[in-house]
């Protein structure tokens, strides 16, 4: 039913439209101005309130609050039966009939879980990621969702931070591309479409740079680093049309983001021209008191509204404090109006004024079973998951496995449905998730091979950690401990391994270990699993590690001792099938790391695009006062952009179209990539640039372009990369954005370290 019809019905007269004037629907500004003219202060403040369904308020009370015009939207409801009465309360019973909006964290899928952010990024396939967001939007909008708190585009260079899992890794260019693809997928040209959801990019800003990787910690960062490395992904999402921005929980150079006028107004609105709605993170406004920039909630509300926080998520601060602040003159009506205008604008853009039930639909169309398997998108989930896996090692062609072999499957993650989902898995249902064990069984059905299974170890033997993980706000305990002694489990696994031709060990983290508030000081595999692997190694059987984890782990022993190692992250609903596809060679792995894997925690940060130094580490001259850790080899254990294949590739020489580029001009780099092996496979040719001498210190190299190509055995293809002046630009010490004349080194490679080099110069 259209908005006008609902309103007219409610008032019993076809012409007695409620106050939002449908006649003005063609002119957003006029429509909103007209509506705002009729709003009381309390109604305005009500629009700024975003409530979490469930924990914050019982449903009947919530409906009354909505009818009283005291709520602008909710999040965490994915159920038409919950949403419909609220929308009815809004558009039938509230004085102004302003529709509610319904939001949710649709991060890497909704009902279907796709791989976590790091996995999606490992695909280096923008079309695939756009499709993931599209499907997620279709599923979420079918559940009445109008707005998602995604994409998460925080650059993460410290894998101690648990939320590294959610984003797309360490690289500004790759994350920016993925940010754009996600927004395009969610919104599909317009958030007003029935099967679109509005994207709100998060966490603005710099959340991934929390000091020490400890969640919620401060961020203190030079402006140049901020502008060059950390801010571009948020901007890319906004430029792609993201209608919302979620404000980060952290401080930005001494001022919490939620009270940061420079961030939310000068940068976001004035410099970037953002025209959408800003939403606080969960309880962030009242937390301004904890930060110590507000002495009480009144002051917190004042700071946040003045800084530019439009909607307050899950705290009562705005609703309680803003009316009084306006009355006392400390907050102006114009400041309230600015925020209200954005909330109403977002609702307008979501199509809710035209059709408040656009995504809720009619009761007779409600899904009988929200969790029905028919509501999932399994084939695309399997496809993307196959592409998200990174082959780290493959000695003696241990992989692919033979379906005729006897395989010993061991490890605490081999048959765990819940972990496969990864965190922020929306409405993903553990029971609908394919584990590695089920995936292997399905692939081996009807084959000569045999699958043996033993758990071998718990995720960890540390009860304190298990308790912590189960304390995170899950509905039911997630980490279940096998009560047997660690040794009994290892003995069983070793006995099983001895009967097999090859061991597949599924090891890594419980999903909750890579989550919000899940920072770690160590990034090794937990000891229980290390002990298992050592015992398995001693059997002498080929050892294949299937890693499931949400952040880079330090895999030194594993690198030396595993015959093959496949990083699968948390691969989602179809994870087990997808991993089996890769292990058996039905899919040739093509994933590339979107983040460097460190050798140790002490070596962090290990990001590849670090700044140049006066005394860079010089191989072969270890005692030469060069920048290094003397007690460990230098550089990442596995570098950014790295990933093997079952085939091999070679790159020819770089051919440049010209030795110089004029301002505004371009240079083409051509290179031939050849599949030199005996299987079809895909690889990613990566283009890096280095500014040889600039007015400020620039990175050793930066990713500026890439192409993923599929090649048949023996096939070669010439690729052309076009480099434009835009790709040479950066923010200098005065934060002026531009390219400086001089030499540039262009590097093309199949990872960030093993590259061909050529040079050109930018000239005036
Ligand atoms: C997280 C956000 C999330 C919000 C709502 C917060 O704890 O930091 O990323 O969108 O909760 O679920």
From TrEMBL:
InterPro entries: Cellulose_Degrad_GH3 (IPR051915), Fn3-like (IPR026891), GH (IPR017853), Glyco_hydro_3_AS (IPR019800), Glyco_hydro_3_C (IPR002772), Glyco_hydro_3_C_sf (IPR036881), Glyco_hydro_3_N (IPR001764), Glyco_hydro_3_N_sf (IPR036962). It is an enzyme of class 3 (hydrolase). The keyword Transmembrane helix does not apply. Residues 1-18 form the signal peptide. Residues 683-752 form the Fibronectin type III-like domain. It holds the Pfam family Glyco_hydro_3. It catalyses: Hydrolysis of terminal, non-reducing beta-D-glucosyl residues with release of beta-D-glucose. One of its GO terms (molecular function) is beta-glucosidase activity. Keywords: Glycosidase, Hydrolase, Signal. Its EC number is 3.2.1.21. NCBIfam families: PRK15098.1. Belongs to the glycosyl hydrolase 3 family. PANTHER family: LYSOSOMAL BETA GLUCOSIDASE, PERIPLASMIC BETA-GLUCOSIDASE-RELATED. This is beta-glucosidase.
């Amino acid at each position: 039913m259209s908005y006008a019809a609902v309103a007219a019905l409610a008032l019993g007269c076809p012409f007695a439209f409620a106050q939002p004037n449908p006649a003005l629907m063609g002119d957003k500004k006029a429509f909103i101005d007209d509506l705002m003219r009729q709003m009381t202060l309390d109604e305005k403040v009500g629009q700024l309130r975003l409530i979490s369904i469930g924990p914050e308020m019982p449903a009947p009370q919530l409906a009354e609050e909505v009818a009283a015009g005291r709520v602008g939207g909710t999040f965490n409801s994915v159920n038409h039966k919950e949403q419909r009465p609220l929308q009815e309360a809004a558009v039938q019973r509230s004085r102004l009939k302003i529709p509610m909006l319904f939001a949710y964290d649709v991060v890497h899928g909704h009902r279907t879980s796709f791989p976590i952010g790091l996995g999606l990024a490992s695909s280096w396939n923008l079309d695939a990621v756009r499709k993931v967001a599209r499907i997620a939007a279709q599923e979420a909008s079918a559940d009445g969702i109008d707005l998602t708190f995604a994409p998460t585009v925080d650059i993460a260079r410290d894998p101690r931070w648990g939320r590294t899992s959610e984003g797309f890794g360490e690289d500004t260019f790759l994350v920016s591309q993925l940010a754009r693809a996600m927004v395009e997928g969610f919104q599909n040209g317009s958030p007003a479409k029935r099967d679109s959801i509005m994207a709100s990019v998060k966490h603005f800003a710099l959340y991934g740079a929390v000091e020490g990787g400890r969640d919620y910690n401060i961020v203190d960062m030079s402006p140049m680093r901020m502008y060059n490395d950390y801010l571009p992904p948020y901007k890319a999402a906004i430029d792609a049309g993201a209608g919302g921005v979620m404000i980060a929980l952290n401080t930005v150079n001494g001022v919490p983001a939620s009270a940061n006028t420079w961030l939310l107004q000068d940068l976001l609105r004035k410099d970037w021209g953002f025209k959408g709605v800003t939403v606080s993170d969960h309880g962030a406004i009242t937390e301004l008191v904890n930060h110590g920039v507000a002495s009480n909630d009144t002051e917190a509300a004042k700071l946040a509204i003045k800084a530019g926080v439009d909607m307050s998520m899950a705290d009562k601060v705005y609703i309680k404090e803003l009316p009084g602040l306006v009355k006392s003159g400390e907050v102006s009506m114009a400041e309230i109006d600015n925020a209200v205008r954005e909330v109403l604008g977002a609702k307008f853009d979501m199509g809710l004024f035209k059709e408040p039930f656009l995504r809720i639909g009619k009761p007779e169309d409600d899904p009988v079973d929200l969790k029905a398997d028919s509501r999932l998108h399994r084939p695309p989930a399997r496809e993307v998951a196959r592409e998200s896996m990174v082959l780290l090692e493959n000695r003696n062609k241990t992989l692919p496995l033979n379906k005729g072999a006897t395989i010993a499957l061991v490890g605490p993650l081999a048959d765990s449905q819940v972990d496969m989902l990864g965190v922020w898995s929306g409405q993903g249902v553990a029971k609908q998730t394919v584990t590695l064990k089920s995936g292997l069984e399905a692939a081996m059905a009807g084959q000569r091979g045999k699958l043996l299974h033993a758990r071998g170890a718990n995720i960890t033997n540390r009860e304190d950690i298990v308790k912590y993980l189960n304390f995170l706000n899950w509905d039911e305990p997630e980490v279940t401990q096998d009560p047997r002694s660690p040794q009994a489990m290892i003995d069983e696994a070793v006995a099983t391994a001895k009967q097999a031709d090859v061991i597949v060990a599924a090891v890594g983290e419980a999903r909750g270990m890579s989550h919000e508030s899940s920072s770690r000081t160590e990034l090794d595999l937990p000891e229980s699993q290390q002990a298992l692997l050592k015992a398995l190694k001693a059997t002498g059987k080929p050892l294949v590690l299937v890693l499931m984890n949400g952040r880079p782990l330090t895999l030194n022993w594993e690198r030396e001792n595993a015959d093959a190692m496949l990083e699968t992250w948390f691969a989602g609903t179809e994870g087990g099938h997808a991993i089996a596809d890769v292990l058996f060679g039905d899919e040739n792995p093509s994933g590339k790391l979107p983040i460097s894997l460190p050798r140790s925690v002490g070596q962090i940060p290990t990001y590849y695009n670090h700044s140049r130094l006066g005394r860079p580490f010089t191989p072969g001259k270890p005692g030469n006062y060069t920048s290094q850790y003397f007690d460990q080899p230098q550089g990442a254990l596995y570098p950014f952009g790295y990933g093997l294949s079952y085939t091999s590739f070679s790159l020819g020489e770089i051919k440049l179209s010209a030795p110089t580029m004029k301002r505004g001009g371009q240079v083409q780099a051509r290179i031939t990539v050849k599949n030199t092996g005996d299987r079809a496979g895909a690889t990613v040719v990566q283009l890096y640039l280095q500014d040889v001498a600039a007015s400020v210190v620039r990175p050793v190299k930066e990713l500026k372009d890439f192409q993923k190509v599929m090649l048949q055995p023996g096939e070669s293809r010439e690729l052309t990369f076009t480099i434009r002046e835009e790709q040479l630009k950066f923010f200098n010490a005065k934060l002026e954005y531009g390219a400086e004349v001089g030499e540039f080194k262009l590097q093309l490679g199949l990872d960030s370290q093993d590259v061909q080099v050529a040079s050109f110069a930018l000239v005036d």
